[in-house]
Amino acid sequence: MTYLIAAEIGQKYNLVEFRWEMVMQIINTIVLFLFLRHFLFDKVTNFMQERTAGIQATINDADSKVKEAEALKSEYEEKLAHIKDEELKILKDARIAAEARTQEMIKTAQREIEDLKVKAHDDIERERISTINKLKDDISSLAILAASKVIDTEIDASRHTALIDNVIEKVGEEAWQN
């Protein structure tokens, strides 16, 4: 009876008419839905879930790679900062070593100069003593020659030389010391 009332209202207001074809279409749609749900929806749902999981895994992997890249970047920046500090330290150490080497070379040169001065002074002193001895020998020879001319006699040369050397030593030490 409700169907009839609905049909009458539908005809009166030009609404949808009730027919058996419509019922069959609804039943066909329900059967098709159940068939598709049984054979396709589970597979499609699983496929979609797997695809979603794959996409999420890719996104997570990309995020982890981005975080890893950022960590590497910060690590490299830190290393660069340490490299700059290390570079400054190496340059400072090199300057200090160069200054120390320079000071060492200067001290070595000063020691060598001092050694050369001492050696030159010793050489001069030896030469002075050698010259004094030569002069003494020359003076003693001249004195012997002069004495032999003055005396005009020949005196034993060794005795005469000893006598003159003795006189020259006494006189020479006072004169040559000044």
Walk me through the structure:
The chain is mostly helical and 178 residues long. The protein is 92% helix and 0% strand. The chain is built from three helices and no strands. The N and C termini lie far apart (165 Å). The model has no long low-confidence stretch (mean pLDDT 81).
Features:
3 helices, 178 residues, 0% strand, rod-shaped
First-to-last CA distance: 165 Å
Biggest β-sheet description: none
Element order: H for helix, E for strand:
HHH
Mean pLDDT across the residues is 81
Strand content: under 5%
Radius of gyration (CA) equals 65 Å
Question: Can I get a quick summary?
Answer:
This protein is 92% helix and 0% strand. The protein is mainly alpha-helical.
List the helices and strands and how they pair.
Layout: H1 2-12, H2 20-151, H3 157-177
Helix pairs in contact: 2-3
